[in-house]
Please model this.
Amino acid sequence: MAIIINKDIFTIQTKNSTYQMKVDHYGVLLHTYYGEKTDNSDKSLLYYQADRGFSGNPYAVGKADRTYSLDSLSQEYSGFGVGDYRITAVRAQNADGSQAVEWKYMGYQLEKGKYAIPGLPAVYASQEQAETLIIQLKDTTTGLEATLYYGVLEQCDIITRTVKITNQGKTDVILQKAASLQLDWEYGDFSLISFYGRHSMEMNLQKEKIHHGVQSIGSVRGISSHQYNPFVMVCEKNTTETMGSCYGFSFLYSGEFLIEVEKDQIDRTRLLCGIHSDNFQWTLQAQKSLWLPEVILTHSQQGMSQVSKNMHTVIREHVCRGVWKNKRRPILINNWEATYFKFTGDMLVKIAKEAAKLGIELFVMDDGWFGKREDDNTGLGDWTSNEKKLGCTLKELSQKIISQGIQFGIWIEPEGISEDSDLYRAHPEWVVKIPNRKPCLSRNQFVLDFSRKDVQDYMIKTISNIIKESSASYIKWDFNRAICDKFTNALTADRQGEFSHRYVLGLYRVLEQLNNDFPEVLLEGCGGGGGRFDAGMLYYTPQIWGSDNTDAIERLSIQYGASFGYPVSVMGSHISAVPNHQTGRITPLSTRACIAMAGTFGYELDIAALTAEQKQEMKHQIAVFQKYYSLIQFGDYYRLSSPLEGTCTIWEFADPQGKEALISAVYHHVQANSVPVRAKVYGLKDDAMYQLSLQDYGEKQPEKLPYGFCSGELISGAALKQVGFVIPSAVNGFQAWQIYIKEK
Ligand code: GLA
Model:
């Protein structure tokens, strides 16, 4: 039993963490603890309350106890406007014009298994793997209810949270803010780790001390965005990769989000995570409910690395679904950087033919195959193939490609619509725009209104036809702009605040339908690279193109950032040409391979332009990736050294049983007379003996290896962890090494 209820105390025990709430004398649900595993005793007894001037007291309490204030209590889910002056979880406009929400505890329920959320992505688990706790709160004046859901995956150290808001009153309530998660800490000195960026440069790590005041990240762009990722960590002072108290929060949502933290007047910290309130207003009619998106929570006392590991496991095993969850993903080649828009059917068949010879398993035809799409100014929305350009029908082209012994995949951007398209001419009302205003262009395109059911149905039909006609076994679902001009003519003026969330619900409905109808088809998400790289999308698309930046060295930091919240198995990563198209940098082919192997692995270059020697090397890379596939995709991932400091970025994939490991090391900076770079290996068995060998898949290997470790000595797991070994030094710029460690 992971959920223990003792009178008014709710304790959730996972393998290594404890979470606790308590209903107090006044019916307020307090948050009393979340952190390192402890017992079930009442933690609120250790809390301290004092009379705080200007922090008022609820009427029912005030005369008796001036130390009791909503402003200073750690609460599980705060209301609004009745005495808690911090950032709060909910705000609503009531029929009388007030905005007050005051929650009181009503009761609880326990369920076996993990709850699901209608229309939204959610962690799933078997009846044996999970339990659900449901707690009912109510504003007894208005009848607004908040049903708090806790999904507990005990063995994974995962707790999920969501809320269903229901209007049990008689008149409409307008929700103006509704966070999915609130977490209060009674004490602690924390830092917030978040990931910021821009198109082609996503996932930059930022660690900031949580100071007095409010800090926030979020998106008002209609997508989760390149600018901030909806995954954050909160860690206590001095936490490192392997030590210290650390929390992870992943929002399963692909739209506008807000993650806020506030350190208050008495040094308590509050975190809120939910749909961004700026573009959100939801009318709840009597008896109607709104489910909020889910948040995944985890805690470890063993630092950031373990929090990442927990997130990797839950996303791999309990978010990604269907056939592709555990099936080996194909090694693909995409024609985008090889041809951009300038291709013919024959050129594509040629690439596919060459690729098949090297052992590549899937050919992906990217943008430009449809409508009048010769550049990014036209054609989006016209999802019929450009037969003049392809020289045949889509069906014929895919057959020609498949007959080369390679699968066929295809790029689509269903949410995009060009002004110069037949779809726009037929349905101008399907475009997201505000009446009497010209909508903003981005990449010279508009947005198709996915909040509309007729648009969703049209796209389901259109995409289904593409899949059937082309026998596609893979779809790349792209979206190349952010959303503004938020308005839909499917809703009345007073309900326009529902647009952004309804858009995401519409997107999810289409993706869900495609998953159901085409379970064998692999979907890869993409939003101009990592513009919609979130756990919500991963419920529908088990991999996402990591970034439009394919430069191997830049990818080190993008993939490093992503690794904090997401497993390697979801990261779309390709080897591209040099000089790199985004940065002009030249890196060895072997280095590009090593870095693409920290992802789903594929190619995106003109094979025809490669030498026989390079093709041979590619063949070898493919064999190497196949050999280590399980270790890479399902092994435990460790960040051994960061691309943001030092000279060498190192990461490790370890077999969960500790029998083998693969270390990848890339010199992002080469120095003369270099200082040795040491890697301490995690995840091995202390008392087992291991042998190290250098994986040779590259050009210009040194004639003599600089260190003795490769010559066959047996080294204990304990020594490899505590002393580590020295990575061979760089013999050329951006040198990469892969070191395989095997138990003997
Ligand atoms: C986006 C994607 C690229 C490519 C182009 C095509 O930028 O991220 O991989 O598909 O669109 O227009």
Summary: Residues 612-634 form the longest helix (23 residues). The longest strand covers residues 173-185. The pocket of alpha-D-galactopyranose is lined by residues 336, 366-367, 411, 478, 480, 526, 528-529, 545, 548 (CB under 6 Å). The two ends are 40 Å apart (CA to CA).
